[in-house]
Amino acid sequence: MRTFWNFKRGLHTLEQWEPNCWVQVTCPTDDDANFLQQELHIPDYFLDDIADTDERARYDFDDGWVLIILRIPYVKEVRSRTPYTTIPLGIILKGDVCITVCNFETNLMIDFVTYQQRRGVGFTDAVDLVFRLFLSSAVWYLKRLKQINARIEAAKLHLDRKVDNADLISLSRLQDSLTYFATSIRGNETLLSKLKFKLPVDELDADLIEDVSIEMNQARETTGIYSNILDSTMDTYANIINNNMSTVMKTLTLVSMFLMVPTLVASFFGMNLINGLESNVLGFPLAIVISVALTAIFWWYSRRKTWI
Fold first, then answer.
1. Which of 93, 94, 274, 287 is the most core-located residue (most Cβ within 10 A)?
2. What is the number of other CB atoms lying within 10 angstroms of the CB of residue 38?
3. H or E segment at 102?
4. Residues 73, 83, 164: CA angle, nearest 5 degrees
């Protein structure tokens, strides 16, 4: 799906492409790809690079065309190993052509358009659009990090109940998400530092770049903090599991030891040897009394040693 936006005087849609408009392409179809390649003549491999979900944040030049790939946060709606991940957002520039391509429907782009329409100012040029997309991505990283932190805090509240594998798997998935976030944010910061010298930046753009740098730095540091908190929470879970296992093993050992005392007495009197109690009517009751007495003594000794 493609949308044409006039961003010079506010942000409103156009019926067809015009010079110096913003072409927003989301989940591109074959028709969208044909329009970009045949009508706007963008290099065909640009779309292939953007479609690669593992493509790193970078920029590329080809015959006057500029390709900027920005990593943005994305939440998978379906059950997945990593509920929070990052995807590439492609920005293609040349002269009066400004295109953004994303192969996923994201809240970031929807919010970006809505916010710019509320501003009612639009963009000064395509470079201003690029750096505002950088700023929006940094803000959304912080939003997603708050959601991840909320899930970590919820997991910490459950530490006093039974811990199972599902809890550890859920935390492990969040750890993967934080790893993706940290890698993508570092890549975006590196890309931003290079674009400052590759794109025509004016004074207003310089102020915007400073804001973007601050937001990205905060997102990177927040990711590191939450990653450390998550590591600590997972260690706590592991310690609780080990402690529970130790408690169970201790209980089973004590039960075995208590059962061993009467078993030993019964084995002693049950041997096929003469012990003087074969024909005595008090033989069996005596064995029972000795077993109970020795078990009581062992129980008292265990309590004194704080084994139980």
1. 93
2. 9
3. strand 97-102
4. 145
